[in-house]
Structure formats: structure tokens, C-alpha cells
Design brief:
It is a single chain. The protein is of the alpha+beta class. The relative contact order is 0.08. It folds into 3 domains: 269 residues, Jelly Rolls, CATH 2.60.120; 121 residues, 2-Layer Sandwich (Phosphorylase Kinase, domain 1); 247 residues, Transferase(Phosphotransferase) domain 1 (Transferase(Phosphotransferase), domain 1, Orthogonal Bundle), CATH 1.10.510.10. A hairpin with a 2-residue loop joins strand 1 and strand 2. Helix 7 runs antiparallel to helix 9, helix 7 runs antiparallel to helix 12 and helix 9 packs antiparallel against helix 11. The protein binds 2-acetamido-2-deoxy-beta-D-glucopyranose (5 copies). Keywords: ATP-binding, Cell membrane, Glycoprotein, Kinase, Lectin, Membrane, Nucleotide-binding, Receptor, Serine/threonine-protein kinase, Signal, Transferase, Transmembrane, Transmembrane helix. InterPro entries: ConA-like_dom_sf, Kinase-like_dom_sf, L-type_Lectin-RKs, Lectin_legB_Mn/Ca_BS, Legume_lectin_dom, Prot_kinase_dom, Protein_kinase_ATP_BS, Ser/Thr_kinase_AS. Its main location: membrane. This is non-specific serine/threonine protein kinase. It is found in: Cell membrane.
Amino acid sequence: MSLINLIAILLFPEIAFSSSDSSSFTFNGFKSANLSLDGLAQIMPNGLLRLSNLTKQQTGHAFYPTPFIFKNSQNSPSTFSFSTHFVFAIVPQLQPLGGHGMAFVIAPTNGLPGSLPSTYLGLFNESNNGNRLNHIVAVELDTLKSSEFNDIDDNHVGVDVNGLVSVLAKPAAYYNSQTGLFQNLTLNSGKKMQVWIEYDGVSELINVTLAPIEVAKPSVPLISLRYNISPVINRIMYVGFSSAPLLTSHYVLGWSFEINGIVSRPLDLSRLPKLPRIGPKKQSKILTIGLPLISIVSLLICAFCAAYYVRRKWKFAEVLEGWELDYIPHRFMYKDLYIATKGFKDKELLGTGGFGKVYRGVMPNSRIEVAVKRVSHESRQGMKEFVAEIVSIGRMRHRNLVPLLGYCRRKGELLLVYEYMPNGSLDKYLHDQNPKFALTWDQRYRVIKGVASGLLYLHEEWEQVVIHRDIKASNVLLDGEFKARLGDFGLARLYDHGSDPQTTHVVGTLGYLAPEHTRTGKATTSTDVYAFGAFLLEVACGRRPVEPKASENAVLVEWVFSLWSKGEILGVVDPNLGGDYSEEEVELVLKLGLLCSHSRPEIRPGMRQIVRYLEGVVDFPELSSLFSSNGVAFAYNEGFDDFNVSYPSSTQTAFTGSSSVANSIIYSGR
Ligand SMILES: *[C@@H]1O[C@H](CO)[C@@H](O)[C@H](O)[C@H]1NC(C)=O
Ligand SMILES: *[C@@H]1O[C@H](CO)[C@@H](O)[C@H](O)[C@H]1NC(C)=O
Ligand SMILES: *[C@@H]1O[C@H](CO)[C@@H](O)[C@H](O)[C@H]1NC(C)=O
Ligand SMILES: *[C@@H]1O[C@H](CO)[C@@H](O)[C@H](O)[C@H]1NC(C)=O
Ligand SMILES: *[C@@H]1O[C@H](CO)[C@@H](O)[C@H](O)[C@H]1NC(C)=O
């Protein structure tokens, strides 16, 4: 292959497939073919050769423009072998009317002037039909029975020499190699069919083979005619097609020809042009039934998709305001939280606190286990400050705090995402009688020290003073190693070091609330210490600070105090411990609990001091001196009076039901 050919292939692939030289050509479609056309013949934009036109009854001819040499000399008794292969389609426009066929023709001119349409197939006219000076050999594909030319039927293939009375004609059929039989074909079925015409110059045999487009060349030809065409064939002849349609369209899709041999470059059937869409009836059916149906269905699909999209959008809608953009790294997508908690299923519910429900979840991508707290909020007031607090809290890292991982905000709802604590809250270990939740004294003591350490961090070690406000057993969580983690400090108010605490709604849990807290509504580090004292007693005694149902000794601290004054303090120890504990440690915890529960906040130790006591770094002071010197009984009773006074009858219900006093949200006061 020459360089120019190669470039031609690259630039004009369709040219490359319609190659030709002096003895052969191949057209896979006629897009760039230079054919001699006359009459109705035309090449359509897609490369289809159309030999007819419905409006007039005329002829159409398409010839290869250059002639071929068929003989060595004009009078030579032998003609060169040749072969041709083409794909055609006869498409009737009005069945069953319409007809007249087409023909492959070898002629002395590249056109057939004076020829007639209809039964003459554009090959001859009444004066020259059958004249041996015509020098025409044709293979007709006839779809009309013309009795004047002895046609055998209206669907035949015939070999014509100089005239329309065929030398040999056969009903259109092809050899089926599987059945070994000839199978009828309908020429004007509108289907694509192939024809192979071969002439063997030595044996003087004309073979015509027919087959549907999808069938490979059959091994047995339809027509095999021994006939010496040499007297008819001139030395130089043209090859082409003739057509005389009547209410039909004749198409040639591809064509190859070769002289002196079998076609060496077969047609590439996959590259042939497409037939135009036919059958207006079919189209109208599509238009009248199919189109409306399709549009209705697609309309429904669209509506469904839109509804789904809107629903999804609504379902996963979040609230994100401009000022929040800085906090994006701390934000979770609601969709992820929704997937993580399986749509906030009840099955994933870990617990219900005063501020909302907590769900267990597994984040979709990272597979990290989280606890998601849903806090409902109505007002947008103070939201900015609250989110800032949350983000600030999210930066806190202490081994005894539950890490806050981030948040998400929706309309009327705030979601806080915490690290998941596999062993749950301490509450159930203290109060559930199930032995699988039993905790030894050593474990309890470690929990106490852990909570003290976490609280010290909040009070003194973080950049701001953080008051927890709701220290209680159910807010102490146990991680995988049963280490205590203080949770729910997302509800705490933050105060800058040294600044005055603001007054706000009382938040906390009955039995853990310091008397001055309920009186003034002010939460301080001392009120946290008071709650921690109640917690100490709870852990050591295995009893809630207030047992509303108990007929006597309903208030734990009162009971512990009374036994302590009698010198029988170990009588309050949790019987579930079975006496297996360090008396020294238990006594320390109980006495520390009493000290922290002192009604006068200035007597209560600070968290740093408490940690020192628990670690044994500092000796615990003589409790009786502390209480007596300040008039313990009076002070204590006074504190307790306050406690009772601060709870009018409406809140007394809290004793019997939930122990949570305030359900107002911390930030609502801002
Ligand atoms: C039929 O042939 C005439 C004359 O050649 C032409 O004007 C007309 O457009 C053709 N019709 C079609 C359908 O090609
Ligand atoms: C087409 O063929 C004719 C006849 O051989 C010739 O005169 C003409 O130049 C050819 N045109 C092209 C574009 O090849
Ligand atoms: C018949 O065809 C021949 C050859 O093309 C032509 O010379 C002749 O004039 C035609 N006769 C009629 C009557 O058209
Ligand atoms: C095939 O066509 C011929 C001629 O039209 C007819 O005689 C024959 O019965 C047909 N065969 C089949 C199987 O249709
Ligand atoms: C023509 O067909 C006959 C019979 O099938 C076969 O023997 C012969 O080889 C064929 N000739 C050509 C040129 O294909």
C-alpha cells in the first residue's frame, strides 16, 4: 500500500472502501462513488444508490463510468471470466400493486438511451428487443409476470441475452445448505438480498446465486447456465444497473465487480448504507399509539423522579447559614447520620435524656461507631453562640470525657455526634440487679477517680471554665476498657475564667442540685462539686440520691449523714459489693461525698483538692471538726429546707416519674 493510499484511508475512510483499479472495484455504499447516472437514478446522501422515483414511470440507469476489457480482441471466441456481487432491495410502496424489476447489465455503452420502462426494464424498446446487435447481457430480477416475454412468474431471476425473453429463468430462491433444498425468496419483500453473478470463460458457465442478506453465499447457485456469451460481448463493455420501477423503489446498497477472477475484495456488509424507513402505516401506528403511550409513560417517570428527588431533598434537608461555613469541618451531613442510624430506628436507640434521644450509628464510609444525640430546638436565637460552643467543645480532648465529633443542624433540630461508648452508662451498673452488670469496688473507685479527673479538666484545665451542670451516674459512660467518660457536657455553659456566671434556667437532676443552685438559679463549679458529692454517695451505696418510693431514708445524703454521726458509716455500703472492698477507700469516698454535699458552697472542696484526696496525695481532714465548727446540723438542715422550698408541688411529680428537673434547653436563655 502506497503512502498516498494510506493517507487516503486515514482521511476518507469511505473512499478506501470503494476502491477500484482497472480490473475491479468495490463499493460499500456509494457515498463518494463516481457513477454514470441517468433517469431516475440518484445517490442518496447516506450513500444509497436509488434507481427509482415514485412520481413517474421512467427508467433509471447507473453504470460504472469506465469500461472493462472483456476480450483480447473484438472477434475472440472466448470472454474473460468475471464476477460481481451486489446487495439490493426492492421496496414496494403500495402492496400488492407495483412491480417491474431491475437488472444487472453488461452493455456497450454506459447508458441505455431509448430504452423503455415497465416490462422492458429499461433495457430495450419494442424495436430493438431481441436484436442480436444489442450486445446486451443482463440478469433480471423481475417482480412482474409479462406473458409477452414468456415470464415464468412474478418473482423470478432470469438470464437475458439481447432481449427480454430469458435464456433461462428460475423462481427466486436460494439454496439452504442445512436442508439441502431451495428456499423461496420474495424479491419485492423490501428486504435486503444479495446476488452473485459469475461467468467462467473456460467452461462458459453463467452462475447466478441469490441469498438473503444474513446468509453467506450458498454453495449451490440458483442458476447455472452453460452459455457462450462471447458473440454478444464486445471487447470493451460497461457494467451497471437498469431499473424500471412502478410504485416501487429499487436500491443498490453495495457492489463489487472483478474481471478475470472471483471478487477478491468482498463487500463489507456492516458498512453498507441503511435503507430509508418505510411503511407509513407502521409509522402512523407508532405515532397514534406508541407516541402518546411513550409520552405518558415518560411523563409519569419524570413526575416520579421529581417526587423522589423532592422527597429526598426534603428528607435530608439541613440548615446551613453563612456564619457556619467556618465550622464545616465539624459538620456532619444529615444524610450520613440518617444512614448511620438506619433512619433513627428505635432499634438503634441508646437512651432518652432530658434533651433528646441518643442513637447508635455506624458512619457509612468510615464504619466508625458513633452516638447521635437529637436535640430539638425551636428558636434560632443563640444558635450561633451555641454552635461556636459545640465546636469549641469538639476541640476538648481528655481521657475521661466522651469526645464530641461534630454536629449537624436541621430545621428545628440539632444533632450532636459523639464517639460511641460500647459499655453504656454507669447508671445501669449501679442499679440493675442483673449480675452481668456488677462492678467491683476497684472498678468503682477507678470510675470515681476518672470522673473527678474529667471534671477537674472542665473546671480548671481547659482554656475556659466549663460547668458541666448535670453530673450524675447516667451521664457517666464506660468505654471499652470500663474507663469512665463524662458525657453530655455539650449542655454545659461556658464561662471565661473569672467572669461572672449568668443566671439561667435551672438545669440538672433532682438530688444532684445544690441548694443555692435551686435558690439562685446560678450554676457554679461548686454546684458541680455538690452533684459530684451526690454521685460519690450513689456509687458507694448503690442507691440513687433520692429514692422517692422509699418510706424512710428517701434522701441518701441524709441517711449517710445520720449513720456517720452514729459512727456506723460502713452500714450504708452497697450490699451488692458483698463486703469485698477497701474500708479505707470506701470511707474516704463516703466522707468526701458528705463534704461535697455541704450546704455551704465555700466549705466544699475544689476539684483539684478532691483529686488529691482520691489519689491519697493529701490526707482527708477530720470531718466532724469541719461540720461542727460551722454548725453542721443547722447548716445542713437549712440547706435542706432550701432544697424543699425550691420545689413547689408541680415539680414534686418529678420525684415519682423522671428524675430530670428541667427540660428546657440550656441555650434557650441566651
Ligand atoms: C423524482 O424525480 C423528479 C425528477 O427527476 C424529481 O424532481 C423528484 O424530486 C424526484 N422525487 C423523489 C421523491 O426523489
Ligand atoms: C467521473 O467519471 C467520468 C467518466 O469517466 C470522468 O469524466 C470524471 O472526471 C469523473 N469524475 C471524478 C470526480 O472522478
Ligand atoms: C430503441 O433503442 C435503440 C438503441 O438504444 C435506439 O437506437 C432506437 O431509436 C430506439 N427506438 C425507439 C422507437 O425508441
Ligand atoms: C416456491 O415457489 C414456486 C414458484 O412460485 C412454487 O411452485 C413453490 O411451491 C414454492 N415453494 C414453497 C416452499 O413455497
Ligand atoms: C457454477 O456452478 C457450478 C454448479 O454448482 C459449479 O460447478 C461451478 O464451479 C460454478 N462456477 C463458478 C465460476 O462459480
